[in-house]
Amino acid sequence: MLAIFKKELKSYFTSMTGYVFIAFFLVIVGIYYAVFNLINRSANFENALSGLSFIFVLLVPILTMRLMAEDKKQKTDQLLFTSPVSIGKIISGKYFAVLTVFLISMLIICFYPLILMQFGSVPLKSAYSAILGFTLLGAAYISIGLFISSLTESQMVSAVVTFVVMLITVLMDSLVNFLPTDNRSCYIVFFIVVLLICWLLYSMMHNITVALTAGVIGEAALTIIYVMKPALYDGLLTKVLGWFSVIARYDNFSSGLLDLTSIVYYISIVFIFLFLTVQAIKKHRWN
Fold first, then answer.
1. Most buried of 9, 10, 72, 144 (most Cβ within 10 A)?
2. Tens-digit pLDDT profile for residues 39-91
3. What is the residue-wise DSSP string for the chain?
């Protein structure tokens, strides 16, 4: 894994990708820092970070689009598949390499609240709580970008799809206001979601028995609940999508709160998408 990590990290700094990401990241954060904290004379650094969630929509696709797509296009992934290193370690090495590039930017940002201290009192606890949450948010987004990169051979397609997914997550809280809240509509949506999950299981495992069993059990459970207690579906779609809102979890950090459940949530997102990436690569390997 260490060899993969070193190779990927080196590739970011032998090309322009790593420098471009760090430069644009620091420029955008610096603009918000100057406006919110220096010009407006605010000591709360978390206020500057709270409006920067869109930065991941712009920069994460640039950082992750080549991770797996380039290997697929150049067929160098075949060398990885035949190496003695497990696929899990290969994916982990690539992920930690791109995460390191992001952490370099965050390490520089850690000095911003200290600069503010030269002009007065600064609430460091809330400032570094926001920085921690911002770091975890970025780590989660990078794992999603890595997974999307593993699904295609085109870096452009990977970048566009990652951009769209990131944009949807940022706008999730606004989009849920336009979703239906009646129990019938929610039941239909969840019915379709179960079908999609079954299709995903089959495409990853190529086991029709497992996919059908999961589908039958899932659809039966949904239908039974809908028949017996339809009121449970009222507004359930909005609640579920709100739970999956990656940005909403960051609000506690931006308020200066160190939320343990949000930390576990972000770490879980990372592990889930790394696992899905491994499964996607295994599927491609056997095909």
1. 144
2. 887 788 888 887 787 888 888 888 888 776 566 655 555 656 666 677 788 88
3. -HHHHHHHHHHHHHSSHHHHHHHHHHHHHHHHHIIIIIITT---HHHHHHT-THHHHHHHHHHHTTTTHHHHHHTTHHHHHTSSS-HHHHHHHHHHHHHHHHHHHHHHHTTHHHHHGGGS---HHHHHHHHHHHHHHHHHHHHHHHHHHTT-S-HHHHHHHHHHHHHHHHTHHHHGGGS--SHHHHHHHHHHHHHHHHHHHHHHH--HHHHHHHHHHHHHHHHHHHHH-GGGGTTHHHHHHHHT-HHHHHHHHHTT---HHHHHHHHHHHHHHHHHHHHHHHHHHH-
Give this prediction's pTM: 0.82
Kindly state the tokens that stand for 282: 């295994």
End-to-end CA distance of the chain: 24
Per-residue tokens: 44? 């709360």
Round to whole Å and give the CA distance between 80 and 233: 46
